[in-house]
Amino acid sequence: MTAPSQHHATATPTEQALDSTTVLSWKAPISFAVITALLAVLFLTTRHSGDATFRLSAGNDLIQIPEVTLNGPVTTWTCIALLTAITVAAAALVRAKRRVPLWVVVIFAVIGLIAFLTWAAAGARTPVIPLPGLLAGALSLSVPLIFGALCGVISERVGVINIAIEGQLLAGAFTSAVVASVIGQQWLGPIVGLFAAAISGVLVAFVLAAFSIKYFVDQVIVGVVLNVLVIGLTSFLFSQVLAPNAALLNSPPRLQRIPIPILSEIPLIGPMFFRQTLIVYAMYVIIAAVYIGLFHTRWGLRLRSVGEHPTAADTVGINVARTRFWNVSLAGAIAGFGGAFFTLGAVGAFNKEMTAGAGFIALAAVIFGQWDPIRATLAALLFGFASNLQNTLSVIGSPVPSEFMLMLPYVVTILAVAGFVGKVRGPAAAGKPYIKA
Amino acid sequence: MSDRNDPDVALETGAQVPPDEPVIEKEPEPEEPSRWQQALREIATGNAIISVLAVLLALAVGAIMIAFTDERVQAASGYFFARPGDTFVAIWDSVAGAYSALFQGAVYNFRRPDFVSGIRPLTETLNFATPLIAAGLGVGLAFRVGMFNIGGRGQMLLAASAAGWVAFSFDLPFPVHMIVATIAGIVAGALWAGIAGLLKARTGAHEVIVTIMLNYVALYLVSWMLRTQGLLQAPGTNNPKTPPMKDTAIFFDLLGPQFNLHFGFILSIACVVLVWWILDRSSLGFQFRAVGLNPKAARVAGINVNRMYVYGMLISGALVGLAGVDQVLGTVTTGFSSGIDAGIGFDAITVALLGGSNPWGILAAGILFGAFKAGGFSMQAAEGVPIDIVLVVQSLIVLFIAAPPLVRAIFRLPQPGSKPKKRNRTARTEEVAAK
């Protein structure tokens, strides 16, 4: 594996060195080179000579964009050339002691994806990729992951490792379904259900906070056990109460999609971002609020200080236990709210263990996103996209077995944790109970 | 927070607070409590009582849930103020019915005429406990090295696939075939977990994330192999299922054909002894524990911490792999699908926590959870109480045991090593002042 190639490049042993200490990381160029080589090997071993068609607008869009047809071999090899160029450029940047900016990584990813999609579609039975469906589906698979990841970011930044995201999502899904069913009605039920979901997430977080902050129990242990507890509780109540009375307790009205007037007509991104339910619009607001709150307010500064160095925070008069308790609860509210997407935003009725490991993927997104709300959101989007890519490819009949596509996000995460992220550490005090001397 | 200086805190953080610490001798007191009072106090503040009370509390919460969701109770509570007795009778019926079904499904069935069929539930309990003990030991050993192995599912799936493949596709004589299949499974589990250990040692990748991700990778890998002819899928079918294991490879029954208890139980017991020996008697175990307690100090003492991470994960994965082998060669010998792990990889975490990561504790915890599983199925069949209640009770037990101060507060037990209130307080202030 790639050894951690971080070292401090101190230029000259004069006073210049003091103000120009930069951290060099060869991880990005090395990873780029590996991915480019892998794609090239894939395209060489399995050649697809056909064309690939990208459909850019759905049938009912106001503005119709013609389909784009790309020749398989030409496009793939052009992309490989571009990827190689980016790799070389990244290597040059690092040599010049500069960092590889995030947008270069994003461009690299997009070009890599276009190459892969073209290659896969060119060898498929029906070589048409419906991009609007692919993107919209990816976003809806990502929504609970994003909520879960934001929950994880807040609680780990304040110093409490939150493995219970899965339980909080599940509690939110359960509560919102039951509350919305009992209240009924087109709008009132789902909206009250959303608030109830947030409250149920807070309740799970209370247990996590009480055990880890008051009783100093290992946070990972409490999180794991809470997941089991919530799975047990919801499954028990589902079999015992919900299933026999499904009409009364488990048939919530689903949230309606609200297209935003002008924005929703933008080709490609309009249907993806602006023809969504209330939960998704709330998600945009929450992402922005968490980002601004964490890095540009007093609340965020206190929160991060408690997670990095609780003793110092305590010395300047911040109540560590209280700060942790309420922020973990806030994180729980966000995850619980997101859990409602499983029921009110997607299928409607609750089912046993319907979160199916989304909380753990969200946790991976937190680490992949380096405990930053924006990066964690992007990571969650990537996971959602990869899962939906598998759906699309299995519909068009791609040559890759669907299991390998499903595996992709997890393999990428392992590679990322080992390569990209590596020894980059999270909040210093995360996982350590603060015992006041 | 007044309880921060408590000995409880020290207890939970791992420091040793001997229960029979002669506090009295340190600070001589005018009136010594009598020997009986002292003995009572030791029982009330010991760890055993906490475990028992935690189980009782969890069962009580389970009873409340069973009673509240029972339809007969709901019907009777409709006219509670007219005839309150009916409600209590209904509550008693539902709770006693459920828990006696649990007991009869887990220990001894009194409704059977003879002892042999009456004791069958107990052997079922041990049968369910077999993989739980093996996997619990794996998770517990990783805990002692300071690592958290959530990858039990993936390791079990890979181990089951390897053992199953050897068991159904080779022709070997009886004991050899069984041994080869077992070893294949154990090696597969060890290697799969070893990936996480190696990545942690070489790149610092967090083992929690890597093992979670490896679970999914293993699930999809095994699902793919299960639907691909020539790998694991039974020839000539379309189901994602393997052919049955050959008779020469399966674990033989220990108590004759009328009981399901198989040779794997002996292996699990042997593993308990082995892990105890590794952790408590071997030099490797000493290094494991040193790394688990403080990796930096261990490194200073000359222990190769990264190597310990890899070894710890390999042994942990081998033990979890044995649980996967138990499943294919002992429990489900007629061919398996991708659900072969049966959630044992996650149950093992609670088993290890309940057992305090100590081999003998894990043995007891594994048998207790095996009893819950065996009894849970019969409770579901006899009383219609969903088996998910078992998950609730299990997780509550672990939560309560993890927080002794909570249990003591609920039952108003004295704190360990403490004496009547007033003196206790003065002793505490002195301690703080001395710091």
From TrEMBL, chain B:
Signal peptide: none
Protein name: ABC transporter permease
UniProt xrefs under InterPro entries: ABC_transp_permease
PANTHER family per record: ABC TRANSPORTER, PERMEASE PROTEIN, GUANOSINE ABC TRANSPORTER PERMEASE PROTEIN NUPP
Membrane topology reported for the UniProt record: Multi-pass membrane protein
Compartments where located: Cell membrane
Ranges where the record places region Disordered: 1-33
Primary location recorded for the protein, binned into one broad class: membrane
One GO molecular-function entry: transmembrane transporter activity
Transmembrane segments: 48-68, 89-108, 128-147, 176-199, 208-226, 261-279, 309-329, 349-372, 384-403
Cross-referenced CDD domains: TM_PBP1_transp_TpRbsC_like
UniProt keyword annotations, A-Z: Cell membrane, Membrane, Transmembrane, Transmembrane helix
GO cellular component: plasma membrane
